Amino acid sequence: MKWKAQLNGMKPYQPGRSVDDVKKMFGLTEIVKLASNENPFGASPKVHKFIEQLSINHAIYPDGYASGLRQALAESVGIEENQLLFGNGSDEIISIISRALLQPGVNTVMATPSFSQYRHNALIEGAEVREIPLINGSHDLQEMHSQIDENTAVVWLCSPNNPTGTLIEQKQLDEFIQKVPQEVLIVLDEAYFEYINDPSYKNSIDFIKKHGNVLVMRTFSKAYGLAGFRVGYAIGQKDLICRLDPVRAPFNNTVISQDVAKVALQDTVFLEQCREKNEIGKKQFNDFATDNRLHIYPTQGNFVLLEVKVDSDYVFEELMKKGYIIRSGNALGTPGYIRVTIGTQSQNEDFLHKLSDVLNHAGVFA
Ligand SMILES: Cc1ncc(COP(=O)(O)O)c(C=O)c1O
Known about the structure:
By secondary structure, this protein is an alpha/beta fold. It has 13 helices and 12 strands. It has helices at about 20-25, 45-50, 65-75, 90-100, 115-125, 140-145, 170-180, 205-210, 240-245, 255-265, 270-290, 310-320, 345-360, and strands spanning about 30-35, 85, 105-110, 130-135, 150-160, 185-190, 215-220, 230-235, 305, 325, 325-330, 335-340. It starts with 18 loop residues before the first helix and ends in a 5-residue tail after the last helix. Pyridoxal-5'-phosphate binds near residues 89, 221 and 232.
């Protein structure tokens, strides 16, 4: 068959090991998955109640415009309804952007390490990928800017950045956006937006008001606890959304996912509680790092990137035997580190205890 040449040798996305797999492998009954930055507190109790009482007509296609969710979200964000593009997770938004703008002869600029799907989708479209190493876990915006040329179509910014958790400093971001040519799309991926607690952070929706080439991506998968429902969205000026929308599959969010996201959006109390609990968890990890002289990046998300001073794969394997699934830094471009989703307070306590055992055994604290 006549496959695109760039698909040769490409591998599918490697998700962390599943809970069932690990249970079987190690004969464990309890597994805690802290590998994919989902919300350890699940979703709002209102979502659970809604699902219990759910009655829908499965034979009918969903509303392709996601009108109910669109209206609620536009109001909550403070934008017009036609400034939103919904995706089957923000993963699909990345694929829509790539299909719309990337092709052979065109290049795209991103940080490394950052979220792997920018690169993956760009390669499928045959675009040249220009990856700029982070400096101390943060985007090197100066170098990213210098890599932009007349063939650059998309620049990807991830803030807070996965896997480091660092936020792009507001003033630098502002200057960068001013400098980038208007015909280059700037994607600002804010998958962890709801967890940001930096007081200097200003709402990026202001950028959208001023710049027609800025697209902000957010998701219901993280703080809203709805990763299994697959709802992500992008916010931009109406003309930009209009150009991207034809690339979207017509019924890309299911009937249930649209309704559930709308219910979750309205429970601001639950969201605030999750934010507060995430801060408590963050402190547990930061204290552990300080006490044990391990480097930890200052995270603004619901995950940490923590130094382990030993092979990350070894730590990953040993923690799995003890019932914790995390991500090895070797798989994320950060060897010597592990990425861990901040769990509940008791999960974190137990996890750090087990991590301490593993590192002790490996001679890290000797
Ligand atoms: C930075 C970032 N962007 C996008 C996504 C994709 O999220 P989803 O497709 O679940 O909305 C993730 C998921 O881990 C992420 O970390």
